[in-house]
Design a protein that fits this description.
This protein has 14 helices and 23 strands. The protein is an alpha+beta fold.
């Protein structure tokens, strides 16, 4: 096969049309399908299995910090939503409303939750009286509805799955999860006031860079101070028997991270999944499987790998080996193991890496150890490749002409100084359709003046075009 020939011709090249490439991968890898409800997706088993692994690993990490899971109603009374002015103004354009119960008009409209701050606050107002009732460290796994005008599978849909927590800051946990499990390097920082969450005093974020040079907000953590507590009357008596308002935070991660995995790691043959999140880590493909002993050997390898904790399957369908290879690449399974009569005769199997397509010939005795070793190597290599791509597409600009030219002609992050004035953010967005991604915790002094207006600078900011 020629080096440049794609194994799956049905996928548009990402170099030709990145948006179409993304859609092709989502469809051909059978991650989700379209539905009769415009803007909503049906997540298929292959896509949901990735979400289950994300959910399982995050939930484990949450619970190690003392988090407990709860569930709140899907409906929010309009009067409850109105209690926090900034919050409701921020979400009003995206809210879906229920006006009838059966055939009868409701006395009060109910919104389908776009987020659950108001529900948690109403709950806390009844639950919290004393400092002995604190802290409340609750998390909810659920779906939310936001009536987006423009939708795209996983990245922006009208209903999506997420977790939302109310109390403690978890930004470092999210950053570690993204890098250690999803192999996606992130920038940690604070959002500007223009970009922060509606009703928050401050919003913190981790930002990642996709293969096409656009940024993706990968998760956020919000400090609400006591704003929601005052609106909802959430008070407790402290140790001196004085009434105090609680302080709250919230944070969440969504199914858009499946989109991030696709756009950070995928290639023109389909998905490339990091081993730690892959539902299937290795697929065994028997060659000439009707010949005596081939399927038996495949089952033997399956049993040994499964016993060692590897998520493995045998593809014993009647498809041709070439089709199975292409399908394995399309679905992003990290390792392919090939074994036929000649391999069995020589006491060996062939391992092929999905990310680099490197091949290794190993004996049956060393198969399990070698598969485990290669899976760890793939995980590390994928993170380093993504980090190298991000760093090589991160630029510095110290004047406005240089800044605009870089944004337009060099997709990626642009680091530049900012005066703190929203007018400069608005001008940048109007001129080059770029937004402030975050003010990184690790600040650099690139210049004394704002890249946009030339006034004294206050912060270094990551800028970019984003999903």
């Amino acid at each position: 096969m020629a080096n440049n020939k794609k194994l799956v011709e049905a996928i548009t090249s990402m170099e030709d049309d990145f948006a179409q490439w993304y859609t092709d991968v989502v469809k051909k890898a059978e991650l989700c399908g379209y539905t009769s409800v415009k803007g909503c997706m049906a997540i298929k088993p292959a896509g949901y299995a990735i979400w289950e692994n994300i959910q399982h690993e995050l939930d484990r990490r949450f619970k190690e910090t003392g988090v407990q899971n709860v569930y709140m109603p899907i409906f929010i009374p309009e009067s409850l939503l109105q209690k926090e002015k900034d919050h409701v103004e921020g979400f009003a354009p995206e809210v879906a409303w229920v006006t009838h119960g059966g055939l009868d008009p409701l006395q009060e409209r109910l919104c389908v939750r776009p987020t659950s701050e108001t529900l948690f606050c109403d709950f806390y107002a009844k639950e919290i009286q004393s400092h002995r009732d604190l802290p409340k460290v609750y998390n909810q796994w659920c779906s939310v509805v936001r009536w987006e005008k423009t939708t795209r599978p996983f990245l922006r849909s009208r209903e999506f799955l997420w977790q939302e927590e109310r109390t403690i800051q978890m930004l470092n946990l999210y950053a570690d999860f993204c890098e250690e499990v999803l192999a996606i390097p992130v920038i940690k920082g604070q959002k500007t006031d223009k970009e922060k969450f509606s009703g928050a005093e401050a919003t913190y974020t981790i930002e990642s860079l996709m293969h096409d040079g656009k940024a993706l907000q990968s998760c956020t953590s919000h400090n609400f101070g006591d704003g929601f507590a005052r609106a909802f009357g959430i008070q407790y008596t402290d140790k001196e028997n004085k009434l105090q308002y609680v302080h709250q935070t919230s944070w969440g991660m969504t199914t858009r991270m499946i989109g991030a995995i696709i756009m950070v790691h995928g290639d023109n043959s389909g998905l490339v999944l990091p081993p730690r999140i892959a539902p299937v880590q290795a697929v065994i493909i028997p060659i000439q499987q009707r010949k005596e002993g081939v399927l038996e050997k495949a089952d033997e390898m399956f049993a040994a790998l499964k016993a060692a904790g590897v998520r493995v399957k045998v593809d014993d369908t009647d498809k041709s080996p070439g089709f199975k290879f292409a399908e394995q690449e399309m679905r992003g399974i990290p390792i392919r193991i090939e074994c036929g009569p000649k391999d069995i005769e020589n006491g060996q199997a062939v391992i092929c890496r999905r990310d680099t397509r490197e091949k290794y010939t190993v004996t049956f005795d060393e198969l399990v150890e070698k598969v485990q070793e290669i899976l760890e190597t793939i995980q590390k290599d994928m993170l380093e490749r993504a980090r190298k791509h991000r760093d090589s597409h991160t630029y510095v600009a110290t004047n406005y002409e240089e800044f605009k030219d870089t944004i337009v002609n060099k997709p990626g992050f642009v680091k530049a100084m900012w005066c703190g004035d929203r007018a400069c953010e608005d001008k940048i967005k109007e001129d080059v359709q770029a937004t402030s991604r975050c003010m990184p915790f690790e600040q650099e002094h690139l210049s004394d003046v704002c890249v946009c207006c030339g006034k004294p600078a206050k912060k270094m900011v990551y800028w970019g075009r984003a999903y």
